[in-house]
Amino acid sequence: MTTNHTFQQLIQTFPEQDTIMPVLFIGHGSPMNGIEDNVFSNQWAAMAKSIPLPKAVIVISAHWQTRGTQITAMDFPPTIHDFGGFPEPLYEVQYPAPGQPELAAFTKSIVHATEIGLDHEWGLDHGTWTVVRHMYPQAQIPVLQLSLDYTKATPFHFELANELQLLRRRGILIIGSGNMVHNLRMLNWQKLEQPGFAYDWAAEINAAFKSFIQTNNNNALIHYEQLGTAAKLAIPTPEHFLPLIYTLGLRNNTDDLFFFNDIAVGGSLTMTSVKFG
Q1: Residue 23's domain spans which residues?
Q2: How many CB atoms lie within 10 A of CB 63?
């Protein structure tokens, strides 16, 4: 059984590489981006071509919240259609990427902040497959998900991500998938077809988030509740913001910084994404 592999065996399975993989935070937006050929999905595809081919991908998706931290550990994770009210073609999509139980076990072995559970029930939700199917359409690269422990405060997630940094040196691409500004209750549905429209508060806080990222002010982002009314409107619940916190925890001091898909949608959602490294 993979879970019985020794740490030394797992280290040999995932040897250190000459290059360090980048880290991505991706604003995934509507599930429809998973099947549409648009500015967002085109940029995801272009990003995949601009970085080294990973040995595997681990995604921290806003849409998998658990008590305790879990990582998918099955050989073939199912495609999850965790949404409602969309056109039938979206529900017909399957993304048959393999899993990699050995990587799940290795990830579990290097984390000390918490006990990571090996999950055999979940799969790839739309925070993962809608993005990754554009990046790696042949589904040949193993894809895993790491859950968000909803019982933990924001600093825990940053510290956990620190422990995952060595995966970057072993050919693993880690993606945080959420949205920096994500308030669906305030979405202006009439202006969804006008990319770039943002309420004043959304534009203000998104610019502030970018500034904090540029100046490496992790503390301000970890304690986003202290940033005032605009932050409270942008992050009514934390699950879409926490994947950004993971990418900040995975960042190192030598990483280059590149923003992409820096566009607001419907007034109260931003697709702003960032590449570290």
Answers
A1: 2-276
A2: 22
